[in-house]
Design the sequence.
């Protein structure tokens, strides 16, 4: 199934559903729609999974209890998903967020206790237990919050696998088309995908960036922000880490992955000095928690920029006229996408709102007068 | 001045002579670049080194990033930032072996690597037997190996190469190498295996353009100049977002060492003119251009002139298909058939191939496998090589030790003009 294949007769082809965006969320929607026999097409200006193939963190233990619950339910799905569609490099490493010093210890202990009270699988490890489980952590550690469900996976591979599986069911993909545009037409949608055109009765916008660029045509505005991420990959080292520690993890082949993710409109380094400062920050943060990292060398440090909702939460919902939104949070796309895909496919099949996703409904932005409004609150960086 | 090959040395001497402050940064511990291994170019290099005068020179100092006219340099395990009024990139070219079955075995070397081994004294009579695959003057390596007591066989297409008659010469083409970890025999197209422990293969030289690309210069594919080269104007100023950025030497297109030196002079004079430090600028730049033309190989001169005038090179569809089981990416052990499967699935850029096969993800980051993969992809897709999207680049272009990053800002040396 050649990706990027042009399947165009003279007239625009019609589909039941068009999915805009072939990232994890879009591919998950297509994958969940496929067995429901809903003729769907996926369009994206790039993708899927053209990113640098470094396994991204699939963290569970971050954010509010609701975020953690969402990520946890997603993480529970990933192993079986991997069995079904083929490997995307998912492994459960278990994760620690270490505390250094008394103040951090108190905060972390509190966080672990609160999560445990909410029935979440987070717990506090004492200094001794932390060091016993993870000898690679610095001995200055005061303890750590531990979660067994944190893991890593290759997000690009997940998107490709999901889409490949959907295409075996007959889903059509127009990828790498460089440009995606949408207009409303006769109660449906007409979608330009590069040189191709398709029409669809319903539409799922599964990319914050595409939602942003098509906001005017769709009459739908979502405040978005750009999340910039630099992933540093070291040379191959002797085994240092078993777990993901403060986001730092070691590949089976020995490379350490140091990840720094930031929401920044104004902080992309364009000069050498701030690039140096950024690398210094990353190295210093890593050296504070992992001993033995001093001997590493950073070989690659690709940067990705992607858009997410301005509050950093997933956006999942439906408007009155069969327009669906399925957007994951940038740092949690791996764990959130399978659930988002399921919920949206279910909602599309029944033409109703995905009720299970109520807390993530786009309506929350209506209060900020942005949903279906006019003003764009935050202009994103180009990706 | 980045790079201390003939171009960098000549440019530095030129700037020094004009009385401007210049810093010469070289990645390797020795000055002279590739010219120190090219037979007959050593005299040139030694002459140029005398012209350096009191110029400040940083050796063993890889440049790992560039933004505008500022460079990030790794020097003696420290991170330095350097800003200059003008920057000349003379990063040279490197020999890139075209993969064949067995090329990743230990003991299979490019001529450049073999010369390095000779110069470092690592070649003794026990290093052999050796098979050298080279044409013309490059066959001189065979003579040098024989002088070190190594039993040598020369595989060459032309007989007039000045190699002593005592060294056996064979016509033919190398098809594969066998061995378990290290090379044990080389097989030629006549099917007969020659035992060897060293297999030195002359390979195409490819301009090192990463710094120019990171600086934002557009590149074009010109096989006569060795592959992708950055776009530049008649004074070797780079096209792109930053003024006062120049390219010189083999980085602007592979040519003779003498032509590299002359292009270094041209870039230096152009930079000096921009900074108002050159007397009679037009005359002296015209003079440098003439000398560059005289020192160039004729076809390369024509190709470079066309590029300078802004012509787009002819679109070339390369023809190169190795055996499917050939390893293409030595760092990650990626075979050609894996690339082919990915390309059939739609991965038709180098980045997409990396995402799907890990090709190019190793320490060399496409430096070794990039040129062959571009050629193969061009052939496989029947697409002009120049239309294949090159991989995106991010700093660091060279490995960045964490220890260097952990040193405090206080002991950082800054501010070289």
Sequence:
């Amino acid at each position: 199934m050649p990706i990027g294949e042009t399947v165009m007769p003279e007239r625009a082809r019609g589909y039941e559903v068009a999915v805009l965006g072939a990232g994890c969320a879009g591919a998950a929607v297509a994958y969940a729609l496929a067995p429901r026999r809903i003729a769907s097409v996926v369009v994206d200006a790039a993708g899927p999974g053209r990113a640098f193939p470094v396994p991204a963190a699939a963290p569970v233990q971050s954010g509010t209890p609701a975020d953690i619950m969402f990520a946890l339910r997603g993480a529970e799905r990933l192993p079986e998903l991997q069995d079904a569609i083929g490997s995307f490099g998912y492994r459960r490493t278990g994760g620690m967020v270490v505390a250094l010093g008394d103040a951090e210890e108190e905060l972390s202990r509190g966080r672990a206790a609160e999560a445990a009270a909410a029935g979440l699988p987070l717990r506090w490890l004492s200094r001794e237990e932390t060091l016993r489980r993870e000898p690679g952590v610095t001995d200055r550690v005061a303890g750590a919050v531990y979660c067994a469900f944190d893991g890593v996976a290759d997000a690009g591979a997940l998107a490709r696998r999901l889409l490949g599986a959907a295409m075996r069911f007959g889903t059509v993909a127009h990828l790498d088309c460089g440009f995606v545009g949408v207009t409303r037409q006769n109660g449906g949608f007409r979608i330009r995908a590069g040189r191709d055109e398709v029409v669809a009765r319903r539409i799922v916008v599964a990319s914050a960036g595409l939602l942003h660029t098509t906001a005017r045509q769709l009459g739908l505005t979502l405040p978005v922000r750009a999340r910039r991420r630099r992933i540093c990959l070291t040379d191959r080292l002797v085994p240092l880490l078993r777990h993901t520690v403060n986001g730092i993890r070691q590949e089976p082949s020995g490379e350490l992955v140091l990840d720094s993710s930031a929401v920044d409109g104004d902080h992309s380094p364009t000069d050498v000095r701030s690039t140096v400062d950024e690398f210094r920050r990353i190295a210093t943060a890593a050296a504070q928690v992992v001993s033995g990292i001093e001997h590493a060398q950073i070989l690659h440090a690709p940067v990705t920029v992607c858009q997410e909702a301005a509050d950093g939460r997933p956006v999942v919902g439906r408007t009155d006229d069969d327009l669906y939104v399925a957007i994951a949070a940038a740092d949690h796309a791996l764990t959130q996408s399978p659930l988002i895909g399921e919920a949206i496919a279910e909602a599309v099949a029944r033409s109703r709102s995905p009720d299970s996703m109520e807390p993530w409904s786009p309506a929350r932005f209506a209060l900020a007068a942005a949903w279906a409004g006019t003003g764009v609150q935050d202009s994103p960086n180009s990706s | 001045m980045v790079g201390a090959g003939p171009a960098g040395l000549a440019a530095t001497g030129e700037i020094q002579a004009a009385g401007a402050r210049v810093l010469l940064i070289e990645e390797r511990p020795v000055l002279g670049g590739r010219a120190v291994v090219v037979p007959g170019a050593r005299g040139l290099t030694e002459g140029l080194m005398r012209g350096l005068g009191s110029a400040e020179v940083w050796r063993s100092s890889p440049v790992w990033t560039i933004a505008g006219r500022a460079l990030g340099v790794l020097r003696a395990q420290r991170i330095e930032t350097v800003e200059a009024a003008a920057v000349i990139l003379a990063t040279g070219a490197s020999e890139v072996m075209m993969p064949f079955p067995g090329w990743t075995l230990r003991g299979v070397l490019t001529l450049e690597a073999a010369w390095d081994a000779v110069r470092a004294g690592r070649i003794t009579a026990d290093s052999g037997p050796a098979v050298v695959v080279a044409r013309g003057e490059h066959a001189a390596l065979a003579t040098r190996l024989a002088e070190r007591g190594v039993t040598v066989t020369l595989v060459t297409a032309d007989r007039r190469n000045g190699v002593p008659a005592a060294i056996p010469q064979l016509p033919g083409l190398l098809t594969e190498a066998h061995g378990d970890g290290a090379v044990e025999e080389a097989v030629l197209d006549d099917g007969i295996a020659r035992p060897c422990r060293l297999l030195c293969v002359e390979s195409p030289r490819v301009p090192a353009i990463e710094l120019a690309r990171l600086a934002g210069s557009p590149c074009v594919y010109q096989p006569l100049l060795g592959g992708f080269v950055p776009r530049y104007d008649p004074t070797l100023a780079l096209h792109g977002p930053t003024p006062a950025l120049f390219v010189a030497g083999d980085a602007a297109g592979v040519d003779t060492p003498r032509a590299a030196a002359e292009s270094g002079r041209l870039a230096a004079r152009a930079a000096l003119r921009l900074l108002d430090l050159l007397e009679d600028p037009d005359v002296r730049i015209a003079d440098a251009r003439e000398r560059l033309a005289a020192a160039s190989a004729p076809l390369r001169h024509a190709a470079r002139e066309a590029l300078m005038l802004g012509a787009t090179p002819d679109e070339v569809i390369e023809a190169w298909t190795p055996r499917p089981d050939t390893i293409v990416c030595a760092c990650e052990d990626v075979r050609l058939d894996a690339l082919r499967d990915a390309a059939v699935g739609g991965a038709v850029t180098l980045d997409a191939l990396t995402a799907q096969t890990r090709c190019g993800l190793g320490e060399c980051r496409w430096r070794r496998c990039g040129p062959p993969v571009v050629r193969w992809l061009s052939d496989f897709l029947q697409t002009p090589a120049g239309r294949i999207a090159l991989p995106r680049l991010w700093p660091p272009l060279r490995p960045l030790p964490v220890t260097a990053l952990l040193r405090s800002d206080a002991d950082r040396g800054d501010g070289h003009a």
The radius of gyration of chain B is 22 Å. The CA atoms of residues 216 and 241 of chain B lie 6 Å apart. Residues 410-417 of chain B have pLDDT under 50 and may be disordered. The longest helix of chain B spans residues 257-274.
